[in-house]
Each structure stands twice: as structure tokens, then as C-alpha cells.
Amino acid sequence: MMHDLASRVGVVVSVSRGATHTFSKPVVESITLLAGLGVEGDAHMGTTVKHRSRVAQNPNQPNLRQVHLIHAELFDEVCEDGFHVEPGQLGENITPRGIDLLRLPTGTRLHIGEQEVVEITGLRNPCAQIDDFRKGLLSRVLVRDENGSLIRKAGVMSIVLNGGEVRAGDRIRVELPPPPFRPLERV
User: What is the C-alpha to C-alpha distance for residues 73 and 90, in angstroms, rounded to an integer?
Assistant: First the structure.
């Protein structure tokens, strides 16, 4: 099962960056990833946490949320429920297609383009701002499975291991961490 995930090659559909702490991020032609920091010019760039709720808890904790990725397939899924969502509108920096981000284990590395590498640290925890953006959308990205466990569908968070420029059309290759695999948890 994991081998299938590792053999997949995806593509970047869109990239976004926002200099201020707004919910959505404008789509741009390219973003520059900076190793250990995140997306150049993005409000969430830095070695320590930048998400306001996390800063309030402890401003010195490491920033495990430098780059946010949401799979384009999620937009297709919520569109079937009547929600029109475009890349960047849910605050992600990179919108890939063709990779099942939510099934990847913690520590998976995504090789983007020629040299850029991000490492997945965990799941984005969908918040009430999603309903402020589109009423009812939160219930589509935060659901319960048949056992009653929460499934968070609003993408994954990552850190930058190797920087460079990322743009739409760049290919993405998956590199799984060594076993045993740890499932993604919210960060």
C-alpha cells in the first residue's frame, strides 16, 4: 500500500503566498522556498511558529507549519457538494495534484521541481475560519469515519529541507521515510 504512494508522481497546480495573516493567500507565478524557514515573503515564514493561535500558546515552539499543501482533489470533492474553492483560498502555499497527501506517513519528503524538498510534519487542523470563508465547508473537510474518529482533510504541513523556486507545472516525487511508518497527526 505505501509502495503505491511512493511510486506516484504529482504535479504542482498552483502556488500561493501571503505577507499578512489573512485566511486566503493570493496565487502567484512562483514562490521561493527557504531551507529551515518556509516561503519567502509569507506571514508563516520563520524558525519558530507563526500561526497566531500557536504563538499565543508558546511563541518559542519550532515552526512545523512552514509550508501548507492542499491536494487539488479536495477542491474537486467539495465542488461536488456545491462549494467552489480555488487554489490559495484555504490558505495553502502549494496545491498539488496526483498525490494522496493525507495517506502519507509523517516524515515523507516531497521532491519538487529540480531541487526543492519539503518534509511533511503533520496534518492541518481545520478551524472555524473555513466556515467564515464558505458556510458549511468545515463539515466537508473535518469529518468522522465509521469508527467516529476525526478525519482532517484540509491538507498537510511541512518544513523546508532544501530551498529553491516552485511554480505551477513542477513535478513532485514522493520519498517515504524508513519504516515503521508513523501516521500523520495534527500539528
Answer: 13
Look at the alpha carbons of 144, 147, 149, 155 in this order and tell me if their dihedral is positive or negative. Answer: negative
Q: Are 148 and 155 in contact (CB under 8 A)?
A: no
Res. 1: pLDDT tops 70: no
The model's pTM = 0.95
Which domains does the chain show, CATH number per domain?
2-175 (2.40.33.20)
Q: The C-alpha cell of 107 is what?
A: 516524515
Q: How confident is the model at residue 59 (pLDDT cuts 50, 70, 90)?
A: confident
Contact between 39 and 62 under an 8 Å Cβ cutoff? The reply is no
How many helical (H) and strand (E) elements, i.e. helices and strands, does the chain have? 5, 13
